[in-house]
Amino acid sequence: MNESRPVAVRREDGMAKNSEVRKRPPRVAKPTLAAVVTSELREAIISGRIPPGSQMNEVELAARFSTSRGPVREGMQRLVQEGLLVSSPHRGIFVPVLSAADVEDLYFARSALERGAMLRIVERGISAATIASLDQVLGEMELAMAEGDTAAVAAADLHFHEVLVSAAGSPRLMQMYQALVGQMRLGLNLVIETYVERAELVSEHKAIVRQLKTGDRKALLAAIDEHFDVALDDLAADGAGHHHHVNHSGVTNRA
């Protein structure tokens, strides 16, 4: 009888230790240096702090981030894959300068993705949570328009469409869409100062929500097509006097 007691004690101790292990909060993986570099460079490019045509200097960036050139090189390659940087053999890596044809192609790809997302939403029915999220973003957009905050208007616009694509419930579609968002923001940067002048911007988005609620596929697709057509017309009109191109040194010129 006495010999069995130590075994029981050891068993209880073991159970207590296992219980302590189970209660420990899960470890949160820290972002790698490459991930930090990628994130900060992405935001700097999308926001326009690193303007189109800029050449990326690996040595200077490594010094800026207090790291070796490896994480910087990895970060830049990730952004090349996202389309936020372009690699030119024997010349270097640059922030792309979007032409009118580039922007039109981006809207074409974006329209194809969003039309597919909206048709799936109509088939499955739009949730109350999605409607609430869209209404909240519309409120933010209206407030930003009233305050003349161009950056906030652009951010709300992109957020609205991101909510829609996410509501389709397709991880792969969302992944493809997110790869386009950064490039779309580069396009918006070309006309961001005139963005708040689009008085119809909020009403266009409200029309999309209205048709999503009714489930009218034809009217919904017409609403999204009109929204993108107006955006392209505005980009074309604004770009008429500002032709962008990259010369052989990779520096942006304006004619």
TrEMBL record:
Domain HTH gntR-type intervals: 31-98
Pfam families in the cross-refs: FCD, GntR
Disordered as annotated region, ranges: 1-27
Domain of life: Bacteria
Gene Ontology terms for molecular function: DNA binding; DNA-binding transcription factor activity
Residue ranges with Basic and acidic residues bias: 9-23
Record has Lyase as a keyword: no
InterPro entries named in the record: GntR_C, TF_FadR/GntR_C, Tscrpt_reg_HTH_GntR, WH-like_DNA-bd_sf, WH_DNA-bd_sf
Keywords: DNA-binding, Transcription, Transcription regulation
Protein name per Swiss-Prot or TrEMBL: DNA-binding GntR family transcriptional regulator
Organism: Kribbella caucasensis
